[in-house]
Design goal:
InterPro entries: TSP_type-3_rpt. By secondary structure, the chain is mainly beta. Helix content is about 0%, strand content about 40%. The structure holds calcium ion (2 copies). One calcium ion binds near residues 18 and 38.
Length: about 90
């Protein structure tokens, strides 16, 4: 793992009443990454990255099918802190 420091939190991210696991860490490029596991299998099915460390998420990758490949990417392409682009990616 290239991650030097990670903090892990339990919180209900998806609102289903069950606690989800959220890991917060700096990646190798020094960006803040949030890894979210809502299925409880120990694998993140959502990853959010704050590229400029301003506290606003710039890119979110989501595994919507549960195959542990991120298949949907939502991005802030304009830098205004609003996620404005959604696209599907090949696993
Ligand atoms: Ca939950
Ligand atoms: Ca940001």
């Amino acid at each position: 793992m290239p991650y030097e420091e990670a903090e892990v939190f339990e919180m209900d991210v998806d609102g289903d009443g069950k606690p989800d696991t959220v890991g917060v860490m700096k990646n190798a490029e020094g960006h803040t990454e949030y890894h979210i596991d809502t299925t409880g299998d120990g694998k993140a099915n959502m990853k959010a990255v704050d590229f400029d460390n301003d506290g606003a998420i710039d890119k979110v990758s989501i595994d919507t099918t549960g195959d542990q490949n991120f298949d949907t990417v939502v991005e802030d392409t304009t830098g205004d802190g609003v996620l404005d682009s959604k696209k599907s990616v090949e696993g």
